[in-house]
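Dear U.,

For the methods section draft, I wanted the exact inputs and outputs in one place so we can describe them consistently. I've listed the two proteins in the order they'll appear in the manuscript figures. Please don't edit the token lines directly; just add comments below if something needs changing.

First protein:
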Amino acid sequence: MVPPHPPSARSRRPAPVLVAVAHGSRDPEAPRTVAALLTLVRSLRPGLRVELGHVELNEPLVTDTLEALPPGEAVLVPLLFGRGHHVKHDLPRAAAAAAHLRTRIAAPLGPHPLLVDALAARLAETGRRGARALDPQDGGVVLAAAGSRDPESAVDAGRTAALLSARLGGTPVVPAYASAAAPTVPEAVAALRAAGRHHTVVASYFAAPGLFAGRCARAVPGLPVARPLGAHPALARLVLHRYDEARAAPLPAREGGLARAS
């Protein structure tokens, strides 16, 4: 569990601003869900300045959020679950453009046991049919993610799937993707059924509703689908954990502009 006031917070230097970076979505529920998550983050760390920026589609964009901050330090925490293009390219570019800030970039949220806590809790909400799909004997779980052309993103999803399977007592968990990678959600469901897994539930590997979360849910009508992770306490603790990890990293040299957590 992330302590409300880690030892580093007792230093005289003000804590870096936590800039949570969401992807952005045209779904009006997405910004409301992210706002609720950040309200929970603030409640766990009173006094910490927490700001929001988006990669695209919603305001403020992360570049605007960083530009509006006073000179000092900031930690960018991606509300994303793997090492894809946004984490590797978009965030470093945004940080480098904010020349008045000393900026670190945290690791993406996945994989991590706290993320598995949130996934398991959302699966538990799917009711009786969802519970049947969690049976290690004949059940199966599809971990529905956005997808990326970066192979490291699929590696991260696979590691999360393995952690979730262990949490569920050995129930198979198969990653599947809405775009840019295979298998699709229907293909993963079919593979589980071919292996004798006749009861299947879909875990939503998304922080908030949006295009890809909706696409994954619509692709398998009739199956139980867990809702996006949203303002789950474990996800809020994970945001702070990634912030603390990145904050503990050495500050970058002035000419470098940013540091990235491993």
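Second protein (the one for the lower panel):
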Amino acid sequence: MNLSLRVRVTLTAIAVLLVVLPITGLTVKAVFDAQAERSLDSLLTGRAQLAQQLARQNVAPGNLVRRVDADGVRVTLILRNGRQLGAPQIEPGGTVRQVTATLQAGQQTKGAQLLLSADTGLLADASARLRTVLLLSGAAAILITALALAIGMRFALAPLDKMTTLARSIASGRRGERLNPKRANTELARTATAFDEMLNALEGAESTARTAEGAARTSEEQARRSEELARAAEGAARSSAEQARAAEAVARRSEDRMREFVADAAHELRTPVAGLQTAAETLIQLGPDASAAQREELELLLVRESRRAGTLVSDLLELSRIDAGLQLQLAPVDLRQLAEAQATRLRLVAPDVSVEIHGTATVTADADRLTQVLTNLVDNARQAGAHTLRITVAPTGVHVEDDGPGVPPPARERIFDRLVHGPHSKGAGLGLAIARGVARAHGGDLTVTNRPTPHPGAAFHLHLPPPDSPPHPA
């Protein structure tokens, strides 16, 4: 109770910073260390994969060592005859991270032992520098916050100081002074107005001695109203603060989900882009001396990786359209006709998979979007190893059952999240997320269960609303 409000608020803010800053610093350092370790492992693994690719291209051992060499990586190549190329061999352990690979191709390099070593001491130095930067920035943040609070609290509490000064002047016998707030829509302004009203009531009571009892009752009533106003203002302030905190929490969760999604998308794009870069660099390095088989292999790699990147970008754009509100082209749709089109397509791309179609129904929906959903479901079943598909059409939706491995209960909701890969998935993990978004845009949903025992496999259920129910926006 001996400390002023200004000091208590300042000390509280500094205490919060003393708790939050170390936690934030430790989190940043842990993330940095983990990312550095993953980057080092990725560098060594990528160099080993490049060496295997160069060996398949029958690159000479010396040229292979020079092309695999990179900053921070020691390359040692031990041929089958015991000849050693590159940097001297060092033992792993301590601050040395090492990856060993046996080359599988090449006239001179087949069976050769490749040693890739990296010094992790650089990572430790970087981590130590980061820790120093975090400590210095944290101390500076605490100092700046303390100075800012010391200055800011003086302006923030100025109305209270003015009220205190006026109260003391009235207590000393001076009358007639008022706060007269310019704005009446703030908590302090309403309190100041109530304070002025109380002073008016008190001075009126003093000037009318004959009606002292009535004036006292009036001032008491006014004081009660002032207290109620103050309590109401305090309650409104608390409610506004709670709403602001809730909104901030929702915004932060949305921002975190968006950052995670963008990071995952960037990670997914990194693989095809890296493939394109590697193929292009290799094609440029080989030049006109490359054989027709090598050039054709690299060109096929460029086409495949570019298609993969294009498909991922298209899926991401499709998800953005769903998030923004999918515009549906509604018309009568024959669900059995859509199912038969999928069966025809599947007979072309996977002749060993049989399809059974049962039932018939016509609904009001977007035919292209429902085709997109059925295509994703059929392709997922085929990639999971299914040999038989059963498609059941009904006015309430479409059921796609297969004889694949099924989906375990803990993963039945997670597989509809974005960028989630199943054990048999070959895509970017966006197909089921898009399919569920399209289903919900129609006012329905997409769920998955397993087929009843003893039949193995998964059962996807595309639920559609009754014919008289309009679709909802995505």
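Candidate sentences for the figure legend, describing the second protein: The chain is about 60% helix and 15% strand. The mean pLDDT is 77.

Thanks,
Y.
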